[in-house]
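Progress narrative, work stream C.
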Amino acid sequence: MSTGVDILYRHKALLAPEVCAIDAVRAAICARLGLRDEAERRYRAGLEFCEAQRLPRDAELCRRGLADVGV
């Protein structure tokens, strides 16, 4: 089983210092752990935040995450 650190390194885009949507990171960890509902909730919260703050790159990460968890 992968650790949270392993998951983050696989999602290197999430480690960039300019990324503000921590919910996308939390959601990726939840998705990897099989917590689909929690991952969806976190991706949606991250998407809402990113759209409100006009962070298109981070919003796209959340959209991709939602697609990956099957929403």
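Work stream C, second folded protein:
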Amino acid sequence: MNGGTITGNIETLFVQQNLSFGDGGLATFVIEGELQGNATVPKLLDVTIGSLGTSAFLNADTIIEGGRLQIGPQLGACATGAPATKKMVQIDTIENGAALIFDGNLSANVSVGAITGGQFIVEGGVEDVQIVIGNMSSQSNPGGVTFGSSASGPCPFFGELVINGTLPAGTSVEFNGPFDATASIGMVGQSIKGTMALKAGGAGTIVAGGVGLSGTLTLAEGASSSFSGSVTLVGLSIGGILETTAGADLEGTVTFPFSIGGTVDVDGDLGKNGRILIGGDSLGSVVVGGNQRGSIDVGSNIGSAGSIAIGGNLTGDIHMGGDMLGSIDVKSLARGGRITADGLGDGPITVKEGTFNSTFIHLNDGLGAGGSIVIDDMGGAFDAGGSVQIGPDIDKYAPMPPVVFDGCILIKDDLSGHIDVNGCHAADTADLNVCVLGAMKGTISINQDTCPDPVGLDNSCINPCP
């Protein structure tokens, strides 16, 4: 069919490609009314359909390069999460520079075999439907998927997006409206190497094979936005980024079952219910720009190149199941805040301001030669009011455990809290380097009863922590 307009509704349409046309038999037509039944079109160049009926099924082989399939109606009110009907749109390929456009809300299930430099655009919201995309790639134009892009205001996404291939570099998936708690993204075994952004934040569930080199997953943008859903990523490669931006908070759970090498960057707060869970080693960086009330849990070690940085107050937990070989940097350790490692602390822990009472820093296996704890690093008259424990808890019925203290502790103002060093030291251990530059209002205890090689305390501050 070449050109022409079909007025009113249509029940069934079958277009047979006629190569005798000068344009190669490419379909160009307009249906002003509703497609109520089945329509089969081999190749689309420029097709407009007024709307889809509840039982409509549109099947097209290809939207050819530079072509367009546009489906109405125009956007009225945003999507509300209505359940899917029988309507279905099935496209094998959206070619370079081509576009599949829904002018309003998407209330049909959609299957696209491949997007090769084309665009899939929903101007309105997405109802409770399933969208399945096979593969995506960039050509001379970037391949992309956009939801809720209406200039009249971004609409929510209630559906299920399944991407069965990698999201390669140069491609993008954008959600401009809120991502509802019932919504989901499934990329099982597939990596994000392009960009995926939930610009208005939201909730819902995201499962993917990981974020690869040059890939970015943005969970929320803007100080009024947050993400409170669940994200599970098998990996986060060096150069990969999971983030919130422009002051957006993380109130949900991000889980990495294994080790990570990339960057987790929460530009706002890690809220009370916020969780960052790393099953293996953390070899990259974890950054919270605001306050941390939730928890960061590293199942094994923070590697030597790994780091955790908290720009605001830490009232939540940072925990390592193994050693701390990298660095931890926080503004202040506020009431209830905890930094704990089940292994050795062999990197710097820096608290720029003070530590409140009821706070706790604990390095179970001790403080290695590369380890240090510095409190009030800014020198701003902030007390060390919490507890610091080097070594394990003492069981009075068991032999005194071993401990390492080859590093240093520096308090740049008053010590009004407690420092406890528990355990027996190696025979060649020097006196413990603990320097308090302010007033001694608290206690320093070296608990080493029955130890064969007791050590002393060097509080001369001749060689304080760097």
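The longest strand covers residues 38-52. No further action is required on this item.
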